[in-house]
Amino acid sequence: MPKAAAAANLMLCLFLLVLTFFEISTADNYVRPPPRQTLHFDFRSKSSSKLPQQVHISLAGNNYMRVSWVTTDKSSPSTVEYGKSPGEYSSIAEGETTSYKYLFYKSGTIHHSVIGPLEPNSIYYYRCGGQGPEFQLKTPPSKFPITFAVAGDMGQTGWTKSTLDHIGQCNYDVHMLPGDLSYANYLQHRWDSFGELVQPLASARPWMVTEGNHEEESIPLLKDGFESYNARWKMPFEESGSSSNLYYSFEVAGVHAIMLGSYADYEEDSDQYSWLKADLLKVDRKRTPWLLALFHVPWYNSNTAHQREGDRMMSAMEPLLYAAGADIVLAGHVHAYERSKRVYQGKSDPCGAVHITIGDGGNQEGLANKYKDPVPEWSVFREASFGHGELKMVNSSHAFWSWHRNDDDEPVRSDQVWITSLVSSGCVDMKNYELKEKLVAP
Ligand SMILES: *[C@@H]1O[C@H](CO)[C@@H](O)[C@H](O)[C@H]1NC(C)=O
Question: Which positions fall inside the Purple acid phosphatase C-terminal domain (predicted)?
């Protein structure tokens, strides 16, 4: 590289570093609370009912939404009636059903119906299966600003409830969950109780989830993994050209989000790897200036829990995300919060992604509060507390991230930072040549 270009590059890097990490952090003497009990739910009272349970919605392609619910009665129809005024349903959609058996457990009938086209940023009223209560949802906006709520490793304890209550108080458009939903841990009725616990939020805003280790529930010779998860939490994988519910992507209001699978093959000869390459090549940064990725096992983690578990996936896939200019990577798995600088290959890099671990939604296993010493150069903020994150894409160049601790049941904002997009900082253009080379090469 000519000297002048190298110097200009260095100046740009320094400038970006300063710009990107203009931040305010607080670190006080905080006494960490213990885990809380798993909540108790009584499900027997609902046996053989046509009433919809566990209603949740998810984005299903541009201007479409998938409505999913469970009935214990088999004959209940998979229809969703919907419209823009309460009690007046001008449209109706017909869906599909599935169910599964797991040892002595038999699931209810699981319904999935896609509704739309829907207008952006609008309230719709809807009813599932022709009866039962009316639900209300809000579609995401079609342009900036858009706000995501983020919480991973949820479970169903008193702390989960606290996290959900705090998310419910925030003004957001889409919930993103980087793995570990119910902590059913093979007890299938806990998938039902989790569905009931999250219904008030998940029936009102789309929940976009990817799988964690607690979704696997495989039994050698008897059960492949992810049966319950795939049946209940169907995500738009077909809509995004993927052949597996374990990885997919979606686009909403200027954001392309890639939901990867830490528990699907990711090596260079895998389907997931080929799909990721193809998906990244389809990204148009004029349409979606922000590129996000979510998966369960973090690549940048300085907690002693789950050390280096993400290394193999990272060495396979980090070069692709870097070449494409991924802005922010969100992971779970470690029950604590950590935020990095922009990093690549273990070192800070102004054109790398900001990595955030947010596996502290409130599960019964409690917090992971041992950290490696000294703090790695790339780690900016780390703390073992329950909480949730909010990511507001303000415009094509600026996003505001904040992490809210469930401090004594009050959502305290504990970490916050403005993040500037790689598109606005010139990284994506600079890497265009490298991107094509990396992505198109066989
Ligand atoms: C984007 O938002 C930031 C933060 O509010 C603001 O400073 C900046 O001027 C905005 N950029 C444009 C092009 O509107």
Answer: 353-409
